Amino acid sequence: MKLKKFFVVMLILAFALTSVIGIVSGFAASSSKLPYVKLTWYVIGTPQKDWDLINQKVNEYIKPKLNAEIKMTMFDWGEYNDRMQTKIAAGEPFDICFTAIWTNNYRTNVAKGAFLPLNKPGNDLLSKYAPKTKKLLGDDFIKGASINGILYAIPANKEKAHNWGFIVRMDLVKKYKLQDMFKKVKKLEDLEPYLKVIKQKEPGVYPLGAYAGESPRFLLDWDKVVDDDVPVSLYPNNKSTKIVNELEQPNTKALFKTVRKYYLAGYIRKDAAQVTDWMSDLKAGKVFVMPQSLKPGKDAEMSISTGYEWKQIDITPPVMSTRESIGSMQAINAKSKNPERALMFLELFNTDKYLNNLVNFGIEGQHYVFKDKKKGIIAPGPKAKDYSPGLGWMFGNQFINYIYENEDPNKWKNFEEYNKKALPLLSLGFNFDDSKVKTQVAACKSVWKQYIPLLETGSVDPDKYIPQAIQKFKQAGVDIIIKEAQKQYDEFLKKTGRKK
């Protein structure tokens, strides 16, 4: 009799456990069976007037589905990294944050233990709470974003390649009949006659946008091996597997000399080395040409987000690098009190068309209006100026985004073709482990902050400052980093069967 009761109790417990698993692993179960939680999410961007209104609408939508609400906070471009590093260092138990190779550094935070592992053997949270997102991204993209085989943040589902070039203000092109620049500009030096026209005729406009952290330096398109602010890189063409110090390469010196020439000619903002918020200048109509990371339709996206018409000039060929995998991600804080619900939210955000477009474009009839609802084609609404973040590349899954009427209706098809024609770099999927050179990496980052903003904006003479910077980097241990990186990269090439 006792044995029979034991089996009955065990059966009830097993059923209860199965029910709980069913609740948290999908959205079919009633959210009332989940305890209510309040999540927090930090992102980067230009603060929007109607941000709180959109946050309210998000909560109205997700609460019945997840029995959760979320506090969304946007920090401006120039402050996001410092704000997040302060929060992480203080051990704040927030839930989700934007991370990338270029801000709130993904690799650095993983090394600190700041982000939750999502697919750890024996505890595969991604498969359990975000299976649709996992399928959307695919194994190759997940591998490219993983560190030592473990994924610590969810990449945005978007273009999987990049190239560099310029975006150009079309109202000024038309005003001064500069249309031939779209045929003649093949490199930075080719811009000079056009910059001269704007300098002479538009005193309130900076002919060339160059800022600390967003400058013509990116036209070199170095394949960064460590972090964006460490000059340890590969040439982006698969012709060599030798890791180099960027500052010792002739193309770096040549580019900085051209930028210096443009600075002295008055084509670049005088205090550029101290300015990181370049987007404000674009929105204020103060820039003629701006270097940008490009993709199909980038010019149309920038036209929408800034209120000015832009056209892009592609300079470098498209390549597929690890940067795309870790260039735009959402991580769950290792100290989050509700990591499962945070991942459930990201799953919903990446797969629910209404929710994703609500955050990207705002409220129908206010921030946008449909021109063709069936095809998902929209136009700015009467309150578009109050909510137009222009961050589709950051917010989840671009392939379910609406398209503005001035964008190519084949935008997503063009993305697929762009991805196919891009050159996959030999380093794709390589993530450097800096555990043996942490001191040197930190020292090099300090040197970078001291010298590179000055050089990339043309604020100082490169003939004088590049040798100084090289010496400072050597003192900081850059050669030790290069040696360790080369060792790891050679092992990676051997392991993956790629040529050395």
Automatic annotation (TrEMBL):
Residue intervals of the DUF3502 domain: 428-494
Domain of life (superkingdom): Bacteria
SUPFAM superfamilies cross-referenced by the UniProt entry: Periplasmic binding protein-like II
One Pfam family cited in the UniProt record for this chain: DUF3502
Residues spanning the membrane: none
Protein name: ABC-type sugar transport system periplasmic component-like protein
Source organism (scientific name): Caldicellulosiruptor saccharolyticus (strain ATCC 43494 / DSM 8903 / Tp8T 6331)
